[in-house]
Amino acid sequence: MLTAGELAGLIVAMGWAILVCFLAMVLVKLARLLRETTKLVSDLNDRVVPLLEDMSMTVNEANRQLVTVEAITRDVKQVSGHAAKLSAVTQTIFTGPLIRASALSHGVRRAIEARRNPRGGRRR
Length: 124
What we know:
Layout: H1 4-116
């Protein structure tokens, strides 16, 4: 039969064997997790690089379009300024004579009324 010391040694050895088996299982699972993570990162890298290239091309195209829009905006601003100047010139050309013609017609109308009504009274 086993002595108490041998029995204690056997229990300790079995405990160590169970601990080593448990740690071996943990290490195997950890290795599997690391392999899967490495594969996932590799797949992600394969997908991200084309996406970044596409995004870079999109940003470059957007910048090119913004330059075009800026040129269009500048031209519209210039045309708007010319239209405002043309409107001011048109207003100056037509309103002066129009006011004079209106004043002349008003004066002629008053003169005609004064001739029709010699008493100086106004008709309404």
